[in-house]
């Protein structure tokens, strides 16, 4: 990629032909080849960052793409999804690509080439890809590839935004590493190169190239520009992600949902968070949405994740779940569960899945949570037998709920009325 970034005209001639009529025909908008060229450039530049595989990241307004594309950039975040036969939760990743890959391997979701083999499994990564490690963008590219492949296989991968995504969009880089700053600066360089390549098919090449933003003077400046509301990375990788998600009888959130959050509305929070990240808040002077700020925010709360159960507010948790009819359990990240690993409190009503796997945290062995048939809950670890945390009989005895149909589908009517 570095070698190819120098001879622009040579690369153009190799792919499009020499100057004159061949170039005009290749770049003709009527032939559709200009769009093909743009797609090639996007895929090529992505391969300079993601480890070398062709990947087309969907631009705003696009709904379709080849394998490797993720969610459409302007899509409204998903708030509610139906129960899945197999559901997997993956904790905080914090910029450690190797540990992220191992977590997906432990879950049985990827092969040795990091391609999706999870079939119809639904997986949820609970946020905090950013900070504490230097391979953040490489992880985001992998997640987008797996989103597309999972969808094609009949499954799904959902990625939440955590508190570290929120503080970075807000321009706070206290936990960003030097290597992460360098990765963002490299990404910006590659992105600028791709935009200049696209100008080869512009009717006014000089004007097109003049519109390419100047390079940032430093990694921290590149990070700020790319992650600010409406920034390129924010729009590509963050804006389409929810901050809370219900799948069957499980509700996923990075920190914790309080009753007042649910009174405000799940879909409303997801929509307003997405608008803010895109730089499209209805109030131009609006800062970080209220439900994403402070220790009681849904991405910051530790009310259900303190290591000691006595310090967890189980009554608040019960009230929150009652406001989401059909839900039995909350799955959270954010607070490192070390050395215990994945565990539950409050009568198995909340499962904590942040094990501190990143080398920038405690470098623990990756673990994932598995929910089978929306009832059986298991802890998966590398080279160990699955540990049953909630058996089928336990689920039947402990979680009888008036809004729940034991055939595996929640009663959506009351749920939809609460996630307005």
Q: Which structural category fits the helices and strands?
A: alpha/beta
Output the helix-strand order. Answer: HHHEEHEHEHHHHHEEHHHEEEEEEHH
Shape: globular
Terminal Cα span: 46 Å
Sheet-strand content, in percent, reads 5-15%
**Percent helix among the residues?**
25-40%
**Tally of helical runs:** 15
State the low-pLDDT regions, or none. Answer: 18-24, 60-69, 401-420
Number of strands: 12
- Going across the biggest sheet, name each strand in turn: 1-5-6-7-9-8
Radius of gyration: 22 Å
The averaged pLDDT comes out at 87
Summarize the biggest pleated sheet.
6 strands, mixed
Word description of this protein:
The protein is α/β, with parallel strands linked by helices and 420 residues long. 35% of the residues lie in helices and 12% in strands. It has helices spanning 8-16, 21-26, 33-47, 97-106, 136-152, 163-169, 178-198, 205-210, 219-227, 232-238, 259-264, 266-278, 314-322, 392-398, 412-418; strands at residues 80-81, 86-90, 122-125, 156-159, 244-247, 250-253, 329-332, 343-345, 350-352, 367-372, 376-381, 387-390. The chain has a six-stranded mixed sheet with strand order 1-5-6-7-9-8. Helix 3 (33-47) packs antiparallel against helix 7 and helix 7 (178-198) crosses helix 9 (219-227). The longest helix has 21 residues, at 178-198. It is globular. Mean pLDDT is 87; it is low at 18-24, 60-69 and 401-420.
Features:
420 residues, alpha/beta, six-stranded mixed beta sheet, 12% strand, globular, disordered C terminus
